[in-house]
C-alpha cells in the first residue's frame, strides 16, 4: 500500500513528465498544449486516482500561474534566463515554485521533492541549482507574507 507522500511524489513525477513533454514538443505551457500532453500521457500510463488528480492539479496550476512563477524565477536567478535553463531544471522549478506559491505543502517538503526530481531526471548539477533557486524563492515568499 502506498502512503500519501508516495502518491504525491508519484503525482509530482508525472506532472514533471507532462510539463516537460509540452515544453519541449510544443514550446508552450499553454492550457491547450498541456491538455494535449495530458491526454497523450494518460493514454500511455495509468496512475491511481489520487496521484492522477494531484498530477493534473500541479500541471494546470503551473499553467494558470506561469507569469507569477516566471517572475519569481527571474528574481531568484538574474544570471540565468528562464528560456536558457535546461528543460528538466526549468520544469522542476515550475513545479516547485507553484507549490511554494500555493502553500499547501510545507516549503522544506516542496524543496526536497524538487531536488529529488532534479537528481533523478536532471544533470549532475541540477539538484544544487534547483535547491538554491527554490530556497531563494522560499525566502522571498516568506518576506512577502510578513509585509
Keywords for this entry:
0% strand, single chain, mainly alpha, 147 residues, N-utilizing Substance Protein B Homolog, Chain A
CATH architecture: Orthogonal Bundle
Order of helices and strands: HHHHHHH
Rounded mean pLDDT is 91
CATH class call: Mainly Alpha
- CATH fold assignment: N-utilizing Substance Protein B Homolog, Chain A
Integer count of domains: 1
SSE blueprint:
Elements: H1 4-26, H2 31-44, H3 49-64, H4 66-76, H5 87-102, H6 107-121, H7 126-146
Question: Can you characterise this structure?
Answer:
The protein has 147 residues and is mostly helical. The chain has one domain: NusB-like (N-utilizing Substance Protein B Homolog, Chain A, Orthogonal Bundle), CATH 1.10.940. It is 79% helix and 0% strand. The chain has helices spanning 4-26, 31-44, 49-64, 66-76, 87-102, 107-121, 126-146. Helix 1 (4-26) packs across helix 3, helix 5 (87-102) packs parallel to helix 7 and helix 6 packs antiparallel against helix 7 (126-146). The protein is globular.
